[in-house]
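User: I'm putting together a teaching handout on how multi-component assemblies are represented. Below are the sequence lines for each component of a complex, exactly as they appear in our records. Could you produce the 3D structure of the whole assembly as structure tokens, so the students can see both representations side by side? Please keep the chain order the same as the input.
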Amino acid sequence: MKPFTYERAKTPAEAAAAVARQPGAKFLAGGTNLLDLMKLEIETPRHLVDVQDLKLDRIEPTREGGLRIGALVTNTALAADTRVRRDYGVLTRAIVAGASGQLRNKATTAGNLLQRTRCPYFYDSNMPCNKRKPGSGCAAIGGYSRQLAVIGSSDQCIATYPGDMAVAMRVLDATVETVKADGTTRAIPIADFHRLPGDKPHLDNSLEAGELITAVTLPRPLGGTHHYEKVRDRASYAFALVSVAAVIQKDGSGRVAFGGVAHKPWRVEAADAVMTQGAAAVTARAFANARPTDDNAFKIPLATRALAATIAEGKSA
Amino acid sequence: MMSEIEMSRRGVLAGSAAAAALAAAPQVEAQPAKAPAPATMPVSLTVNGKRRDLTLDTRTTLLDALREHLKLTGTKKGCDHGQCGACTVIVNGERINSCLSLAVQHQGDEVKTIEGLGTPDKLHPMQAAFVRHDGYQCGYCTPGQICSAVAVLDEIRRGVPSHVQADLSARPQPTNIEMRERMSGNICRCGAYSNIAEAMADVAGASV
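Assistant: Of course. Below is the structure of the complete assembly, with chains in the same order as your input.
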């Protein structure tokens, strides 16, 4: 690990200013992803601003009838919250499908949104990777791509966003609240938070330098039945090959987002519109412009089947 | 003569950092500008009920602070990347991977390690159950397994939901399938899983 200095910020604005002021500075929350990447020297911050004292660890009702989740609420606390379990079951289900108990106890809501890709070529610093080292090339294209993106990828990057929580937040149309170094705040719809790789695959999301996530808000509950179907190589503690987050209403309508298939949680509203026509109709629209590799083309029929299983589960609920 | 010098250099290098820097001084001029000394910081935390005050390189993980600085070598370093669970300790009542946490993040925290759970004369009920059910072979993952298992039963008692729970509004039960799912962050290369789950069921049955 490269040497770094460390400080603890007292307020969100102070933390944002501290990171913006110092070149090579980064926020540190739970650290479960950042420390891993620092040990491999994929991340080499020169200064860490620990945000654990910012008192952003509460879940509160909003005036609009939703929930405001503090950036530092742990995965475990968010999944266990009785309001989340009752009204946003898809979110609890997605969180407990990810990582391990130890990691969920430390991982935070904001940190989980910022989890970096698990593309093996991003992790292997002997390999070219446009995300790790812009302009160096992409060893994943033409390489071992079974886990990687089937849609929304570019000629420079076929990495996937690896998380589960954000896939549920995409189905719920959550909003990411932030504060910048100058103290101004903004609200970013989750749909616009994660980016597609395009020609700038080193940028995972739309945050500016020094911009700190303070909360994630959920709109009013959608009702319906909530599902998170995750298909992976082992029954627990593995990243998704394909995951399906869905909220299905009594009349068969609903909404769905897919994980493990793209550089961001993948939801196509035009595909939601044909939910009553069944899984194949939905995925035909959701994956209309897919460009899978030979290794990962299986993900598209797998997404159809996982969604079909989800719809069947919704009918029997 | 030459070997004597080498011997003494080795001795000096094994001594204090300041002495090592002096011994290396003649070579420094020929080298490019030296990197600044790594940052160190004071850290105070409570480990197994005892307050410990340390001054650490900021890069020191909680795992290395426990093993290398406090000589509590019961907690094991397996993968050092949060994939195996051998480093699991209980911090402020919750299990975490001590390899993926910096010691400086734990200022004022209460840490419990395998050494704090029980002693050879007075085993923690989970330690006794692991012995009774043969919950290990080589034993390397065992301290992490036991810390995790103790915390899992507490999580079930507190109603923390899991992936295998059918009804999210119901209270989780200490069933075999729950143990297996909740222990998936602890890898056992010897494959003692089924005995570990039985040891946990034994303890859960005794206390629920």
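A couple of points students might notice: Confidence is low (pLDDT under 50) at residues 1-29 of chain B. Strands of chain B lie at 40-47, 50-57, 88-91, 94-97, 110-112.
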